[in-house]
Amino acid sequence: MAGSSRTFRRVTLLPSTLLLTVGLLPGAAPVIAAEPAGDTVTAPSSGSVTRDYTGTVPAGTGGTAECVEGVNADLYTFTIAPLPASFYATRTATVRFRIRWAPTEPSTIEVQDLLLRVFPPSGPSAESDGSGTSEVVILTNPVAGAYQVYACSFLAVLPQFYQGDVTLEVALNTGTAGNPPSTPSTIRFGPITTVDPQRDVAEPSMRVDGDGNEYICGPFGSSRAAEYAQKSEDKGDTFRILGTQPEGRIAPGGGGDCEISVGREKNPQGYYTLSYTGLAALVNFSTGRSEDAGRSFLGNAVSESPVAVDRQWMDTVGEKEVYLTYKQVPTGSFVQRSTDGGLTYGPGALAIREISRSGNILVDNRPGREDDVYIVHAFNQDIRIARSTDADALSPSYDIIVIKTGCPTSPPPPDDRNCTSGRPDTLFPSLAQDAAGTLYAAWVEAGTYNVYYA
After folding, report:
1. So what's the pLDDT on residue 414?
2. pLDDT tens digit string along 44-56?
């Protein structure tokens, strides 16, 4: 779904439809509240203070925006006592929230997946929804007040016991120089353009074809089962709605995540083929194809993917050969290939088993390398690339290249309380390629929110 990208190693004999509804049925077991329900701490002048707690997350499903106490989440409250007005004039601080758990019996369930969401006294919430058996959220220079800490079920068949801890660490400023000023650049962003004042979508996908046409696509919500796409022919100054008028839907279904891709060569009609997929409530993808630069679409409600899928990415090579990758619960990331511009796809092939967050898929842009496919992704604290040189084969193979290793959290070592950096799991890593064939991967570190590339 929008805002979440998960992986699971669960092997269960329960039907997939039951997995999507368990925990939401009447008569579920009562929730065991966090113990203790909360703590209040006074920030030290320097050093750290830690509070531990335990709890049980109810069985159920959800996302980072759907943590409800007593339904699919357990709540703990961490309160920082009032701080002196000048506290951060001579100090910096971090507060780390963490939950850890072990899979629940029976043994047919290898992993139950939880997420962590923290609501500070003011400002937006912060969340961690990777894979494995731990989640960590880090905030810098926290303000005084109550922090609501939700341990939430992303997909748990049974109630799940967990251990939680919060560490507030304060350090005196050493007076060392900060980062040097950046070199002035002539690169500037243009003014903001409102793509569509009526259709409020999220996490948009953007593509530009060889004629300079700009396409935007974003999900409107699973409850509406709709996604909307827009097109600009004047370098982004104005946009118009695509799809079936008057509402603008491209294909039946969708609403969770939206992805588009454009051909690299013109089709017989003289345009660059535009391909679309829309995530339908974690169970399937709707597909669509336009061979006239978005003026009309053919839509399809079924992509032939397995059930329980999430966060898709696409790339096109040549005129109409499209590669689609996505997360499948609980196996891993799959890749499907289309030879008709993304309207229909062949069977899926497993590409990555060990994956936390999936980034985009990229087909090599050099002549003769059209079967070389790359998928950037995060696993635990690593940034990795899955590479295939036979992606068009019936059973393609992928090898894994680790390009960055961070602090481990799954399983967390007993002395990792100070391991608060190097966690590249904030949203999705990104991959690009220049004309010479060089690959560039970029990601955001959790906690610091610094951006890095390799």
Report:
1. 42
2. 999 999 999 999 9
Which conformational region is residue 290 in: left (phi greater than 0), alpha (psi within -120 to 50 degrees), or beta? beta
Name the residue among 82, 46, 40, 78 with its Cα closest to residue 169: 46
Per the DSSP assignment, residues forming a β-bridge with 60 are: 156
Question: Band of the pLDDT at 32, cuts 50, 70, 90?
Answer: low
Do strands 134-140 and 91-101 pair parallel, antiparallel, or not at all (unpaired)? antiparallel
Chain-centre distance for alpha carbon 346: 25
| CA dist 208 → 95, 200, 312, 334 (Å) | 41, 21, 19, 25
Q: For 30, phi and psi rounded to 5 degrees? A: -65, 150
What is the gyration radius of the CA atoms in the chain, in angstroms?
Answer: 23
Other beta carbons within 10 Å of 212: 11
Sequence-ordered strand ranges (E) for 353-454: 357-363, 373-379, 382-388, 399-405, 430-433, 439-444, 451-453
pLDDT higher for 1 or 147? Answer: 147
Q: Tell me, what amino acid is at 3? A: G
- The CA distance from 159 to 114, in Å, is 11
User: Rounded to an integer, what distance in angstroms lies between the CA atom of residue 181 and that of residue 450?
Assistant: 16
Cα separations (Å) of 115 from 5, 101, 277, 386? Answer: 11, 11, 26, 25
182 CB contacts (<8 Å, ≥6 apart)?
none
Tokens of 150: 């939700």
In this prediction the pTM is: 0.67
Dist. CA 441–CA 454, nearest whole Å: 5
What is the C-alpha to C-alpha distance for residues 113 and 315, in angstroms, rounded to an integer?
Answer: 29
Helices and strands (H and E) in the chain: how many: 1, 29
Residue 386 has pLDDT above 90, yes or no: yes
Length of the chain in terms of residues written: 454
Q: What's the pLDDT tens digit per position in 114-129? A: 999 999 999 889 888 7
